[in-house]
Amino acid sequence: MEENEEALLSSSKGKKKKKEKKEKQSKMESKSLSPSTSDSFSTTSKEKSSKKKEVICYYCKKLGHFKSTCYKRIAAEKKKASGNVEEDDKKGKSQGDAYACITIEEALQVLFANPWIFDSGATKHMTGCRDVFSSLSYSTGRRVTIAYGNDLDVVGIGTVTLKSREGGNFQISDVLYAPEMKKNLLSVSAF
Fold first, then answer.
1. Residue 173, SS3?
2. Which DSSP category does 129 fall into?
3. What is the pLDDT of residues 87-117, one digit of tens each?
4. What is the DSSP annotation of 60-86?
5. Angle (CA) 132 137 140, round 5°
6. Which of 89, 101, 116, 88 is closest to 175 using CA atoms?
7. What ranges in the chain are assigned the alpha helix state H?
8. What is the mean pLDDT of residues 7-34?
9. Does the reported pTM lie above 0.85?
10. DSSP, res 147
11. What phi, psi does 187 have (nearest 5°)?
């Protein structure tokens, strides 16, 4: 019987503590919604530290600190700031590369309608347009494999003079002449 009484007593103490805790929490919520100026000036440092323990951070939703001092927010802002610098550097570099490509492409546009395309996979410069050669030596028996495994007959090799829009001339030697070629290719590796 004594055990039952002790169990009832401890049970009622637990319920009482829960009730007190709820009341205290509701008081804190009402104070945080409408703080009075007289309360804020009359608190002691012990009361301030106990109030701070009950404060919830708006950033990480944890107890004991404010958003302004939240270590997670500060770390995230530092990471974002350092990440943006790196990202800006990458943007600047890729944008500069894009401008360089456009400039090169424009410089190599010839006055006729067929532009020259840089091809990193081509081992030789190639064209199917006879009119672009300033000098051409005909030869037979040579073949070149292009994309998708297609083979084309090479009937000559020569020098091409390209005129830029600005009026400059570029001479490119060892250009293969394959009449079936649909595009003009400049081999990156042949430069």
1. strand
2. -
3. 444 444 455 555 555 555 555 554 445 788 8
4. T--BS--GGG-HHHHHHHHHHHHHHHH
5. 110
6. 116
7. 2-33, 37-42, 45-54, 71-107
8. 56
9. no
10. G
11. -75, 125
Q: Are 156 and 137 in contact (CB under 8 A)?
A: yes
List the beta bridge partners of residue 187.
119
DSSP reduced 3-state for 191:
coil
**Residue position matching structure tokens 């550097």:** 89
pLDDT at 52 (0 to 100): 62
Inter-residue contact 158 to 136 (CB < 8 Å): yes
Closest CA to 144 of 152, 134, 155, 132: 152
Closest CA to 161 of 120, 106, 108, 105: 108
| Dihedrals phi, psi of 63, to nearest 5 degrees | -80, 155
Residue with token string 């090479």: 154
Beta strands 169-177 and 151-163: pairing type? Answer: antiparallel
